[in-house]
Structure formats: structure tokens, C-alpha cells
Write a structure and sequence with these properties.
Structural class: alpha+beta
Order of helices and strands: HEEHEEHHHHH
Shape: globular
CATH superfamily: Homing endonucleases
CATH topology: Endonuclease I-creI
Number of domains: 1
CATH architecture: Roll
Number of helices: 7
CATH class: Alpha Beta
Length: 179
């Protein structure tokens, strides 16, 4: 499985909080053969690693299956790590981030270095991720912001409207575009 992932796998990143608090990771397996993807999915499921359903890639020429649940990503990466060659640095950085040892920015810096070294494909982002927190810190900050946002709804509608406008303005200034 590690050898397959080294060649036709990818660690995808996304900002699941819609704010710069933490990064979510998914392990993506891709192949034109739906039978191959079905075998990969079955292999992972038999080992207790939860996966997505099989899907067509956006252009419809390839099939994918993803591992996105936090514990399943950690488990799959830990199992594959001793056998990875090309994606060793990415896997180690992802594990360290998911274990709270490094910040999101530290992990993303490793991913950028792997692009520069030619071991990772470049996937341009519309929004630059700036995650200065470990995943543990990011969870705490996100929880605090959620409770602050929930408290906002108990106020009168005038104050609510004012806050909504302020947040929209702040959000538009934080969404920077890659150059």
C-alpha cells in the first residue's frame, strides 16, 4: 500500500474551520481502474481505516478514494511510514502535525520544500493557508470562536447585523490570493 501511495497517492490539505485555525488532511488514492480503487478501499477498510466511497475525479478520467477521518489518516500514515520513499517527509510532517508536535505552518513548509525538490506536485491554492497553531491549539481557538459566535445570537438584531458586517469585512481582508 505504501508503494502505491508513493506513486499514485496524495496528502491533500484543506482549511476545515473556514478560518485559519487548523488544517484537515486527506489521503487520496487515484487510479483509472475502478477495480484497483475498489481493492485499495477494501484493503484499508479491512484494517479499520475508514474511507470515502469511490468517486470519479473532477475530469472523470480517474477514480479516487479518500481517507479523511482524523484517526484513520494518522493510522494509515503511521502504518505506511516505514515503507514510504518519496512521501516520507510529507508523511512525517503530517503525523507530527496531527500529534500536536508542530504547527500547520511547519507542516505546510515541509510540503512546499517537497514541491521544490520535485517529490510533490504543486497544487496552487486560491487562498494562502496561514496556520500558526498546532492542531491542539487550533481546536481550542476554534472552540472559543464558536462559543463567541453563539453568544452573538443572543444579542438584539441591530448588534447582530453590525457584527455580521464586521466579520464579513474582516474575512475579505484575510482571504489573500497566491501570486
Amino acid at each position: 500500500m505504501a508503494g502505491y501511495f508513493d506513486g499514485d497517492g496524495n496528502i491533500a490539505t484543506s482549511d476545515i474551520s473556514n478560518r485559519p485555525f487548523k488544517v484537515s488532511l486527506s489521503l487520496i488514492f487515484t487510479n483509472q481502474s475502478i477495480e484497483q480503487i475498489a481493492n485499495i478501499r477494501d484493503f484499508l477498510l479491512r484494517r479499520g481505516i475508514k474511507t470515502s466511497n469511490m468517486m470519479k475525479a473532477s475530469k472523470g478520467t480517474a477514480n479516487t478514494v479518500a481517507v479523511s477521518r482524523f484517526e484513520s489518516v494518522k493510522k494509515a500514515l503511521r502504518c505506511m511510514l516505514p515503507f514510504l520513499y518519496k512521501k516520507t517527509n510529507e508523511a512525517r510532517a503530517a503525523i507530527d502535525y496531527y500529534e500536536g508536535k508542530t504547527t500547520g505552518n511547519d507542516m505546510l513548509a515541509v510540503f512546499r520544500k517537497e514541491v521544490e525538490a520535485g517529490r510533490r506536485e504543486r497544487h496552487d491554492r486560491k487562498i494562502i493557508l496561514d496556520i500558526p497553531y498546532t492542531i491542539i491549539e487550533g481546536n481550542e481557538v476554534m472552540k472559543k470562536h464558536r462559543s463567541d459566535d453563539l453568544g452573538m445570537f443572543s444579542e438584539d438584531s441591530g448588534a447582530r447585523s453590525l457584527r455580521k458586517t464586521s466579520r464579513a469585512s474582516a474575512k475579505s481582508t484575510t482571504n489573500r490570493v497566491d501570486s
